[in-house]
Amino acid sequence: ETAVFQTPNYHVTQVGNEVSFNCKQTLGHDTMYWYKQDSKKLLKIMFSYNNKQLIVNETVPRRFSPQSSDKAHLNLRIKSVEPEDSAVYLCASSWTGGAYEQYFGPGTRLTVL
Amino acid sequence: GQQVQQSPTSLVLQEGENAELQCNFSTSLNSMQWFYQRPGGSLISVFYNPSGTKQSGRLTSTTVIKERRSSLHISSSQITDSGTYLCAMDTGGLSGKLTFGEGTQVTVIS
Questions:
Q1: Pick from A43, A94, A98: which is nearest to B93 by CB?
Q2: What is the pLDDT of residues A70-98, one digit of tens each?
Q3: Can you tell me the distance from the alpha carbon of B3 to that of A24, in angstroms, rounded to the nearest whole number?
Q4: Distance between CA atoms of A111 and A82, rounded to whole angstroms?
Q5: Closest Cα in chain B, distance from residue A45 (Å)
Q6: Residue among B98, B46, B89 nearest A91 (CA)
């Protein structure tokens, strides 16, 4: 049963455009995450966010920014996409502090032409 | 270096064969998870297994935290088991982030 929802499923855009992806979780968790899965299928953390703190992976370019309206939503904005941003972006949620199971959404596949 | 090492990289099984996938961690960890992913598919949590042995149907996971390793055993493999199996560790701390291995691609043939 899906409890982490992502939209859109797919997005195709051109270099330099701005895109925004949505994520919502209905599990009542207080921490949400964005991961990037590249063409080699390797998953890497981009952001970890709860009510109190945003933790950013230092390798994430500044054109990426998370946006949250409440603890159930964490969107991802990319200000000016580059070809290397083509990937699958996965949203996840869990309870705070680690050592808790994470639940993932279905992902948004971004293609940058 | 790679903090999470998975082996083998890929595996081809005859339907009905058993398999064991390994995951080794280079740092101490709080917990770990096993995930399953079909090509183009969602990431599905198979086991959340901080320590000890857990079983679900034909799948068994054993984590030995002190030795920084975990294994996933598939018994009597079926064609529907084909896909990529990923392990991930949580090293603790506020972020709660998971660090993933590169995955084991499993193909079950009839």
A1: A98
A2: 889 999 999 999 999 999 999 999 987 65
A3: 30
A4: 10
A5: 7
A6: B98
